Every structure is written in C-alpha cells, then in structure tokens.
Amino acid sequence: MSPSPKPAERTLHLAESNSTVLVFADADAASKAAADRIVRIIAQAVAARGKAILGLATGATPEKVYDDLAARVRDGGLSFRDVTTYNLDEYYPIQPLDALSYRTYMHRHLFSRVDLAPNRAHILDGTVPETFASEHAAQFDRWIDDDGGLDLQLLGIGRNGHIGFNEPLDLTVEAFAALPTRLVDLHPITKVDAVREFGSVDAVIPRALTMGVRQILGARTILMLATGPKKAAIVAEALKGPITAAVPASLLRTVADKVVWLLDEPAAAELG
Ligand code: GLP
Predict the structure, then answer these.
(1) Does 16 qualify as catalytic in the annotation?
(2) What is the pLDDT of residues 30-67, one digit of tens each?
(3) pTM, whole model, 2 decimals?
(4) How is the chain split among helix, strand and coil, in percent rounded to 5?
(5) 156 pocket-lining for ligand 1 (C-beta < 6 Å)
(6) The domain spanning residue 94 has which CATH number?
(7) Is 51 among the domain residues?
(8) Which of 106, 174, 182, 265 has the smallest set of CB atoms within 10 Å of its CB?
(9) 272 part of a folded domain
(10) Annotated catalytic residue 160
(11) Which domain holds residue 23?
(12) Catalytic residue from among 36, 68, 90, 160
C-alpha cells in the first residue's frame, strides 16, 4: 500500500495558469508531499508497465525528498528494484568522484541508500571528450525514449527560472520547448548561486550537460518543488508572468495538466 499524499495547507487557483499549485506550511511538509507522490508514481508505473522511469534533480531543494525515500526503503515500505533513473544534469567537465559532481551528490543522497541497480542510474558523463559531448547527449535522449519516456520528472527552479541547466535564452517558446539534451553555458545568476558549493564565482565550473526541455516537458508527471523565500519572486514570475524562454519554468504552463507545483509558504509568498 502506498501512502496517500498529505493534504496541502492550501491549493491556489491562479487566473493566469491552470497549473495545480499546492502550498504547504514548510519545506518539510512540501518535501514529504513530493516523496508521497513519487512513491505513488513508482507503484502505478510498476503495476502498469513493470518498471518506473524517474527523472531526478539535484540541488539543496530535493535533499529531504531523498531522505524520505531512503527512510522508506530502509523500513521496507519501498523498493527501487524496478526503477530506472535519469538525472537532469551534470557539470562539464567533471570527474564522477569529484566531491562537487552531481554523481557524488546522487550517490550520497539516494543511490547508496536504496536498492537501485547501478546500471539503471543514469547521469550525464562529465568526462566525455568535448568532440563526443553532443553524441553522448543524443544517446541519453535515445535511452529515455527507448525506456518509453519519463513517468516522473522531479524539478527544482533556479532563481533565474532555469529547469535542469536549461538557462534563459532568446528563443521562441516552440524552439525552447524542443531543445534536446546538450552541453550548455551556465548563466551568471546560476554561477553566483553555485558559490555555495564551489567557494567563489571563479571556481564554478562554467559549463554543464543538461537534459533538454523536450524530454522534461514530455514526462508523464512533473513535480516542481520550490521552497524558501529566495524562490518567491521567480515562482510568481513563472506562474503569473508571460510564458517565455526568458523564464524557462514558465513553459511548464504549456503542459499544465500534468504539472504539480509543491511550494512552502515562503516560496508562495508573491502569488497572492
Ligand atoms: C541547480 C540545478 C537545478 C536545480 C536548481 C535549484 O543549479 N542544476 O537542477 O533545480 O539549480 O537549486 P537549489 O535546489 O539548490 O535551489
């Protein structure tokens, strides 16, 4: 039996968007709600197709979600036996054992704590020679397509609205929505936010491999988790401003019926 989701403190109905926006008292409650939904999605996908294909995120935001999932596996209430994962992004270039790699992050926060087969945990490879980067990225998209697409994509949001490392670009919405997995340059705001891990802006690895917007928007369910006051302005812009490639997360409104925004009160503060 999978647990049913905890009720949100409140559900917002925004005139500008028909997205489901659930607001919780704090980050712990929002993270618990995300974990509850992931557990249900795994159970439903495994029942329907014998496997669950999850798109996973890094950053500070999902850490509590992974703690919750790991605790359920430890207690025997959840298994990753039939799960395959694809991570959103990885710095480039970076060695997998580098303390700052997303491979290391995922090992620490989830993979080492659950029964996920190592050959089913896919993370873009920060060691591929640059001449092979686009082929590696295209192969990553083919693997996801061959797995039947993502049952779930868990997302965070950058302060500039990025999803994965799909940074704001001067493109039409249609062109942005079609972007494949690829090598990208990080945006100045992203580099400033990465000082937390790298120590200084100059030390931040300025490029990354990121899952493309096409694959993210193609997921059958998208969970956007945003917590804390620093996300309030961009959450409001993404949900109430124009749908534009200048605010990547605003494109989630083009597939609003399968997106759930899980916010804490500080992140929802500018939604009214
Ligand atoms: C990072 C990651 C994103 C993440 C976002 C927010 O740089 N590449 O996938 O969602 O920025 O990070 P945080 O949760 O630490 O605020």
Answers:
(1) no
(2) 999 999 999 999 999 999 999 999 999 999 999 999 99
(3) 0.96
(4) 40, 20, 40
(5) yes
(6) 3.40.50.1360
(7) yes
(8) 174
(9) no
(10) yes
(11) 14-264
(12) 160
